[in-house]
Write a structure and sequence with these properties.
The protein has about 90 residues and is of the alpha+beta class. It contains two helices and four strands. A hairpin with a 2-residue loop joins β3 and β4.
């Protein structure tokens, strides 16, 4: 009975560890960073850059996307400029 229980526990631990490895798979991501500057009376200015981020899990990539996405408004001399940065990553094949 003890051997059967020990075998069952060992089997559960083995399966749990294998699932964890898949969930933490690290891979390379191609990330597009888009920055748009808007000011009243002027055309929007857009700058786009592409970067490669490797050895990141999917959750780390989502953190990178979140950190690189923001909207900021700066006012100087009564003129406001809004800068919107958007980061979107896709898994590199």
């Amino acid at each position: 009975m003890k051997k059967l229980l020990l075998s069952a526990v060992a089997g559960i631990l083995l399966v749990s560890c294998q699932k964890g490895d898949d969930a933490e798979k690290k891979t390379c991501w191609e990330c597009s960073i888009n920055s748009v500057t808007s000011m009243a009376g002027f055309e929007d200015e857009t700058i786009t850059a592409t970067v490669e981020q490797c050895d990141l899990t999917e959750s780390e990539m989502k953190e990178f996307e979140t950190a690189g996405t923001s909207t900021t408004t700066i006012t100087s001399g009564g003129i406001a400029a809004t800068i919107k940065n958007t980061t979107k990553c896709t898994e590199k094949k």
